[in-house]
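Quick log. Single chain, no ligands specified.
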Amino acid sequence: VKIFAPNIEQRDVVNHLKGSPTEEKRNVLVESARLARGNIQDLAELKAGEFDAVIFPGGFGVAKNLCSWAVDGKNCTVNEHVNATLQAFHSAKKPIGLCCISPVLAAKVFPGCEVTVGQDKNIDGRFPDAETASAIAELGCKHVCKNVNESHVDKTNKIVTTCAFMCKAPLHEIFDGIGTMVQEVLKLA
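-> predicted structure:
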């Protein structure tokens, strides 16, 4: 397992204690290195031929830095290195795992693919971003409704997705869903 991140400036830095942006500037690779304890490489250096699969985490980092979904929605652009990585694994018929908001990357890059970001309706207030499913459909992809502890496998494209924090759920349910995504990616590898 190796960890990669793009060597780009973050769109913005958020003070998560206050929930508001700061004036501070940070680099995505440097911040990712902090989380990975330094064991990380620039995404531009990733060679799909050296790996069996790729998994993208989710979160606002994806929606703001790996693409512009947070600002532009379905009209977003995808970072060139993220796009190239997804295309390389897809062309090599290697599995791609995506969780939380990152399934929108596949929806943008692979028209016609199948993904999940949970539900297409805000059931019991648990899916506050349910409109993301409609945007995915508008991109020409199929959104498949799944519970937080499940994942969806698009066998044709070898794309495995789960909603993770797109659902307001207990952490153990989110953990279970991410676990099923990883298991399905490994089965396809």
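Residues 32 and 38 are 8 Å apart (CA to CA).
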